[in-house]
């Protein structure tokens, strides 16, 4: 992982429109929307208001009145793996979706209009990891970063990084910065020289019950305090807090099993 914050204003505001290819939103589809709202609301201080309902009941999470993430309700008959899904900004969702298909990925939803908010598609890369495409209209995406309760980084956990990185590079015009190491398979994806996401090849260590998947890191003021709070709220600690070059990190899951990470940045 590396630092991927955009240049933020004095109150943590991100630029008005996300550049093409940059992560612009994260969303989670769950079975129990109301209880999930309670969990993340208590953990991150989020409040909620209704969003577009094209894919079923959906709410946007707000931090101090600014949108940071989305939560949606899965149909009762859909038994899909639960995972936070990053959306990458696009100037033309239809063209991006076409490129995904031509490079060996699939499009499972859309492209379709989400009311007046924008146009979206949900696809998967050749390894099966799910991601979203967002063409902004009225809804520009995550409106604040660099403060507790906001998405801080998105990282793809997959079998090996090279071929999957090539896919994302082609679709979103990324540059690549691989880690040259015999025992650590990692590629940082950049736009205009700025890190925007990471790809971590885990080989046979990849959890079999998950398969390749994206993990969203959320910033917190104190990881250890956040872990205590998370457990009290019914969440689970999957990998205890540990120090990294970029801060203190823990991998966790919400009460329904959706995995994410907590990051306390170095100050």
TrEMBL record:
Cross-referenced InterPro entries: Anthracycline_SecMetBiosynth, Glyas_Bleomycin-R_OHBP_Dase, Glyoxalase_6, VOC_core
Region (Disordered): 1-21
Entry-linked Gene3D superfamilies: 2,3-Dihydroxybiphenyl 1,2-Dioxygenase, domain 1 (3.10.180.10)
Record PROSITE patterns: VOC
Domain VOC residue range list: 150-265
Signal peptide bounds: none
Pfam families noted in UniProt: Glyoxalase_6
PANTHER family for this protein: CONSERVED PROTEIN (PTHR33993:SF10), GLYOXALASE-RELATED (PTHR33993)
Protein name: VOC domain-containing protein
Organism annotation: Streptomyces violarus
